[in-house]
Amino acid sequence: MAAIGYFPTYALGNLYAAQLRDAMRSELGDLDRLIEAGEMTVMLRWLREKIHRHGRIYPAGELCRRATGSPLDPGLYVRYLEDKFAPIYGL
Fold first, then answer.
1. How many degrees, rounded to 5, is the angle at CA 13 between CA 84 and CA 76?
2. So what's the pLDDT on residue 55?
3. Each residue's pLDDT tens digit, 72-90
4. Do 68 and 23 contact (CB within 8 A), yes or no?
5. Average pLDDT of the segment spanning 27-45
6. Contact 27/46 with Cβ under 8 angstroms?
7. Mean pLDDT over residues 8-26, rounded?
8. Is 68 exposed, middle or buried, given 0-12, 13-18 or 19+ CB atoms closer than 10 A?
9. Which residues fall within 8 angstroms of residue 18, CB to CB, at 6 or more apart?
């Protein structure tokens, strides 16, 4: 099946997801609290406004810039990983 493009696609998706999460947190506050309270509509509304309504009008990099205010920043993914794993592994 020559599925050469899958790994890079997943890696980029993780980078974009971390940046979108960071922007969403900046605008909506504590996302964990919203999830625990079952208030998913707030996050869905944000995604619809910033991402979904644009469909394929913009390339991924431009959509990221428009949604978050800055170009793709791999440092946000690194920070996400550090925040997630440092407490678990004592890093």
1. 45
2. 87
3. 999 999 999 999 999 999 9
4. yes
5. 96
6. yes
7. 93
8. buried
9. 76, 77, 79, 80
